C-alpha cells in the first residue's frame, strides 16, 4: 500500500466552487486534482494499491479529509476537472467525524493533520516527508515500500505542520536538485516504488 | 536545451473546442495540456531551457505544430485550462507554413512529424524515443543532456510513426517497469536530466 497525504491550505470546504475555475474559486484545488492524477493513474489502468488523502483547510469549514481509494475508485478520468468534480460531489454530503462514501472509492469526513498522523502511527508503517537537500530518494528507496508520504501544496508545509510531522519520526528525503510541484514529486515516488517492487 | 515532442492524434486543429471539455471537444487536448505542465513547471518557477512541440493531428485541418518556448513564455499557469487557453488562442491565428507567435513564447505553424524530425536531425542532437522493456533511462542518462524526446499521446505512437522515427536512429529507452502517462514520463525525464546537470 502507498498513502499520499496532501495538505491543501486554501482548498475550499464547500461544494460551491466552479469546475471552470479550480485555481481561483477552488482555492488552488487544481493542485490537489493534479496530485490525484499522478498518484493514481497508470497508462490505461489505475494504481489499485494507492490511497490519496486530501486535507482541505480552506473556508468556510476548514478541516475536512477527502480520501481517494484506488482499490475501489470509479468514475475518475485523468483530467483535472474530473477529480475536481468528485471532490465537489463529496463536499455535497453531510460531513461529520464519521466518514461517508460520496461516490465509489471517495470518502469524506472531518479531520486534521494530527488525526491523520495518529492513525498512520498506529499502523507502524514508515512515514516520509520531503525537504530539499536531504537524503536522496534513491538511497532510501528500500525503506519506502508500504510508505506514507506527507506533502504540502504549492505553499509547502508551514512551520507548525513541520513541527507536528517531525513528532512522528518521519524519514526526511529529497527528490533531486530542484524544487518541484507536489504532483511531480508523487510521480517520482511512484516510479521509485515501481522499481522497488520489480527489484524484489 | 531539452525538446519534448508530443503527437496528439485526435487533438483538434480548430479553436472551436471548449475549455470546459478538453478531453471530449478538444480531442484529448487534456493530455497535451498536462504535458505542457510537466515539461515546463518548477516550483514557483519555469524551466527556461525547455521547448515543447505539440503536433495536432485532429480535425478539421490535421498537421499543425504548436510550440511552447520556455525561454520567452508568458501567461501560462499550471492548470490544464491555462495551457488549453493558450493553445486555443494560437489556433485563432492565420496558420501557414511560416510560424507566427500567438502569445509570448507560443508559436504556431503547419507541419508534420517528418518535418520536425528533419529539423532535429539537422541539429546533430541525440533523439530519444520511449518503449517498454528497453534500456533503462538511468543507464543512458549521460547521453540525454541536450536531448530531443518524442512521445505519443494516450494512444501511443502508431506503426507508421514508429517507422518514421526509427529512420532517425533514435536511442530507445525505458522509464521503469510500468506503462505510464506521457506527462508522467516527461516528469521522470526532467528529473533525470536535473540530476545530470548537478553531477557534472
From TrEMBL, chains A, B:
EC number(s) reported in the record: 2.1.1.257
GO MF: S-adenosylmethionine-dependent methyltransferase activity; tRNA methyltransferase activity
Top-level division of the source organism's lineage: Archaea
GO biological process: tRNA methylation
Compartment annotation: Cytoplasm
Xref: CDD domains: TrmY-like
Swiss-Prot/TrEMBL keywords: Cytoplasm, Methyltransferase, S-adenosyl-L-methionine, Transferase, tRNA processing
One GO cellular component term noted in the UniProt record for this chain: cytoplasm
Residues involved in S-adenosyl-L-methionine binding: 130, 152, 185
Catalytic activity: pseudouridine(54) in tRNA + S-adenosyl-L-methionine = N(1)-methylpseudouridine(54) in tRNA + S-adenosyl-L-homocysteine + H(+)
InterPro entries xref list: Alpha/beta_knot_MTases, TrmY, tRNA_m1G_MTases_N
Broad enzyme group: transferase
Task performed by this protein: Specifically catalyzes the N1-methylation of pseudouridine at position 54 (Psi54) in tRNAs.
Family: Belongs to the methyltransferase superfamily. TrmY family.
HAMAP family xrefs: tRNA_methyltr_TrmY
Quaternary structure and partners: Homodimer.
Protein name per Swiss-Prot or TrEMBL: tRNA (pseudouridine(54)-N(1))-methyltransferase
Species of origin: Methanosalsum zhilinae (strain DSM 4017 / NBRC 107636 / OCM 62 / WeN5) (Methanohalophilus zhilinae)
